[in-house]
Amino acid sequence: MDIDRLRDLLSAQIHSLSQSNRHVDLPDVCQTIGLPAPPDEGSKRQRMLAAFESVPDSNLKWVATRLLENFPLASAPRYDLEETLWSDDSFMIIPKRFRRDLARSIEIDDLFSDWSSFERLLDRFWVLESSPLDILFGTHSLRSEIERHVVRNPGDWTTEDLFRALGAFECTDKRFALFIEGAISPDVQTDEARQRTLVEKTNQVLRPCGAELRETGEDGGYPLFQFYAFASTSGRAKNIIFASTAKPDLRFSDAINNDVEIVTNADRVLIYDRPIGSAGITWNDLQSWWADQQGIPNNDDAKKSLFRRLKSCLPSGSPPQSLLFQSYFTSFREMIPELPALLPEVWLHWDPKTVKERGAEALLRFRMDFLLLLPGGRRVVLEVDGKMHYAEDSGEASPKRYSEMVSGDRDLRLAGYDVYRFGALELMGEAGTKRAEDFFRRLFRKYGVYGA
pLDDT tens, 381-401? Predict the structure, then answer.
């Protein structure tokens, strides 16, 4: 927490309180917000600031909390204070697009069954009253507008209208998430079935951006839900090096900008270098990049050319790997453009040492069979295990190779990747195709991928 900023924000409010109270009331004001008694001498401002300046940094959070609980503040200083108090809490990002999608998915009648309870929730997170000048000149307050369009005239406003009026699309992620948690809490929802319906709708919309409501306990027999972030990778994807069965010979042309160039065998590796946002990489993204790279103006030509290029990089000695790749397209067909791209032969990192220096087994730890960059920053690795993963060339079981494989899995998971392995025998014939399709559908349901 930025203690200097918190002290500055509080100092401004202490000055305001000194001007709006009488000398005789200042001791009670100080006691209410956790300040020591002010000195008897000096102006009101001097007395209040003297009491405030004697407060140690360790007590400032308590003073801010008491101030917010007991005195109404204008929207800007109130929000500044609250955001500063929340700044120590890490939180998932909930982009504006997903907030709008959530508002559009919820009927306003489903937000609350009792207006007074919902009004208390609104007061916890939003400033609903106009300033005294607005009241003097007859300007409607936000509270009166909400009462008019939501309570007295149901149907005037949608949930999207309400969220827009509150500022829910522009507020911080923390405020938005706490507001949604409050709307789903038993303080507002008095029917468990309604609670769970709202949770299901919320998760369906927000999972793609890495946010999910999970049941954490109960309150008076009602379930309690809290947001959790499940996008766990520590960094942002930059260059995706893929579609190669040969070890690429690369170098940084500009290490500051993270620019990579292929020194040799340029036709045997691809580098996706476009910005990767919260939606991951879809087939549409990949196809657009490929069309620009290759100068292909026709979409159908670009799609076919890209498919051929990716399929050509799959190991000829691994029909199961080819089946997994092909089944992705046959399973989803027209939905493919909006689905995550299935990137084959992806390099996790690049080691400038040669295979001769490191050994052939090192490649198993550097390269992924397939990678999916899903919405919300989720990274899913798919591996197809042939004998080389657990046996010697002679066919004899190899504890060493198996240990290296599971060690690599641990490293990937700790780095934020979700790893799913197939045995090669699982991906053969019609049964293998059906198994692959079922896996992808279950995978997309788990991660909240739209359309699957």
Answer: 999 987 665 656 666 766 776
How high is the pLDDT of residue 237? 55
Contact indicator for 349, 387 with CB cutoff of 8 Å: no
Closest Cα to residue 318, out of 247, 243, 386, 388?
386
Token pair in block for residue 373: 């960059």
Backbone angles phi, psi at 425, to 5 degrees: -65, -20
Q: Can you list the pairs that 45-53 forms with residues at least 24 positions away whose Cβ atoms lie under 8 Å?
A: 45/15, 45/18, 45/19, 47/18, 47/23, 48/14, 48/15, 48/17, 48/18, 49/11, 49/14, 49/15, 49/18, 52/10, 52/11, 52/14
Taking residue 401's Cβ as centre, other Cβ atoms within 10 Å add up to 16
Tell me, letter by letter, the H, E, C secondary structure of 286-346. HHHHHHHHHCCCCHHHHHHHHHHHHHHCCCCCCHHHHHHHHHHHHHHHHHHHHCECCEEEE
Domain boundaries, the chain: 3-86, 96-229, 240-447
